[in-house]
Amino acid sequence: GTRIFYERAFLMQCRESP
Amino acid sequence: QQIVSPDMLIKHPLQNRWAMWFFKNDKSKEWTANLKLITAFDTVEDFWGLYNHIQKASRLPSGCDYSLFKDGIQPMWEDASNKNGGRWLVNLNKNQRQTELDNFWLETLLCLIGEAFDDLTDDICGATINIRNKGDKLGLWTRDARRGDATLQIGKKLKERLKIPQKIGIGFQAHSDTATKAGSTARDRYRV
How large is the ipTM? Predict the structure, then answer.
């Protein structure tokens, strides 16, 4: 099945998300 | 009114729901009473909401732990998901508490929530950071110590993500060995 993964860079970009 | 991209409004779901735990060593209480669930989350944004809010691991008093485990798995050997497993152990020296520890712990958390272990995700239970004056320890906990190839691949990925130099080895210890050890350390079942 499908699996959700995130690259490190993307996770770090989300750090300041409102 | 501002037009906002949907990307700014929709939280990004994680493959797994994760629970963050905190342990504080109060010798007047039972071990299990000292272990507290902080909260669980299943989106990237909720992870950051939690991480940005809590104390950095390097600032915790000695004797404290943070643990991040898949929801439903308790951060203890006795849990059904952990009892046949073990942990990759990264031992830090005293200097590394200020220089490396927070980076190592954050990187480990990002590996977990980002599913950095690919097809081996089902082998992953969680991770723990132990703050101890005798030496801090980071452990990545897996489900089954008998799965040699999977365990080795997980160890290599961890070492790569933490940027641990090749010449420095890390060991994997089965919880059953740790629980019954005679000395201060259990033997390594695997090393990378």
Answer: 0.95
